[in-house]
Amino acid sequence: MHETTGRRQRFTEAAREVRPDLALLCLLVAAEAHAGSGPRAKAPPEAAPSEEDRIDAAQIELDRLAGLLPALGRQAGPRRWAEALAQLLGERCGFHGSPADYRRLESSLLDEVLLRRRGLPILLSVVWLEVARRAGAPVYGVALPGHFVVGFGDPYGEKVLVDPFDGGRPLSDEDAGLLVAGATGAPLSPSMFAPAEPLDIVLRVLNNIRAWAAARPERSDVQLWALELSLLLPRHPARLRYERAELLVERGDFLRGARELEEYAEVIAAVEPGTARTVLGQARAARSMLN
Fold first, then answer.
1. DSSP-assigned letter for residue 188
2. Quick check: helix, strand or coil at residue 148?
3. What letter would DSSP give residue 91?
4. Separation between Cα atoms, residue 272 and residue 262, nearest integer Å
5. Separation in Å, CA 160 to CA 23, 83, 100, 198
6. I need a labelling partner for 179 at 20 to 30 A (CA). Which of 13, 92, 161, 280 fits?
7. 257: helix, coil or strand?
């Protein structure tokens, strides 16, 4: 419990920095997974690296990868940066993804992605962002619906988009539109090219973890900690409180779940009175399970 409190406190503090450290926040998400029943939790205690060792090793690896990039300088254009990153990370180091990666929790954990060279689009993009940023590249994340990518250059001017999931394949606007249409059926809009903020990236990573766990009822523990970390972010959808309360009830924690349902109902009562009444009914049903 003490270790969990310390880790959550560190995550909270990191999320409230003026310039949040994206890599650190993603590594603290991974630490939460490893502390539970995640990919490395079954290792014998004497064989398992400490949380701090894992975080340090991942940060050192990002530094090492950045050091392998050619010294391009500030005069290099976005296409040259994109090509250099694709050659290093996509070709030389083999970072890419496949459909099978969507079935693995490790695909959402930055330290595991650095080890396996495989992951979801957003985690592979985090690797690109952190390596490129360390090398001085004009880089930013692009949170396309359903498929995260990376941009180089001026988001509102000359830019180059690449898909780290596909080894750094350059994307035209038409390519980006096809990705969005394939994921959501919606057309591409210019606002989708806006740079993604670090905290929004972290929330999306946690959303992916929640979705992975929600499809596996036996992993409700993962869904719960992903929700709890999401709620520690300075900005998050209010409905996550309701989702957490529902999950507590599903896990048999009727008293806490009922209490949180009541608190959520109180928050939304003024704007959604009908929904609030429904939620209060759920709270009463949860409390009845205690009898």
1. P
2. strand
3. I
4. 14
5. 23, 10, 28, 20
6. 92
7. helix
